[in-house]
Amino acid sequence: LAINSPGGVISGVTELAKKIKNYSLPIVTYSRDLCASAGYWIASQTNRIIIGETCEIGSVGVYAIVDDLSKIFENSGIKREVISSGENKGLGVMGTPVTDRFREVTRSEVDYIATLFTTQMRDVRHDISEADCDGRVFVGRQAIDAHFADEIGDLNSAIEAIMEVK
What we know:
The protein contains 6 helices and 6 strands. It has helices at 13-21, 38-43, 70-75, 100-124, 141-145, 155-164; strands at residues 28-31, 34-36, 48-51, 56-58, 137-139, 151-152. The longest helix is centred in the last third of the chain and has 25 residues, at 100-124. The mean pLDDT is 94.
């Protein structure tokens, strides 16, 4: 796999990562510049990770952005109300205030996905410490030392590594 990614949304990542982990042939990841977050989640499931000397890799973690636009709506003369079938249905609808309940539910989702990420990643890359799964990015040799990657190289060394993986 050649990965150059800052990450992105979570949809499909767990499924893809499981397929890569259980694939019958060896898979080597090469990243020259950037392999972060969801991109790293996918890479972490391969047999070997080779990176460029200045590649930024890691950014293990999950976040959600919550915008409270209720004042903008209010200042525009719009009062938004949500009538829903349950206490959690409609939480966070644009234009409504961010409530403690919405924060609690969102925090729970973020924590759940982060646990999936770190568990699945560390199931393959055992030597990564829990402390290093704090969202930071490692560069080149730092990534090797933290066990986020296996070696510094180029695309040719990644191609050669496919033959060496057992």
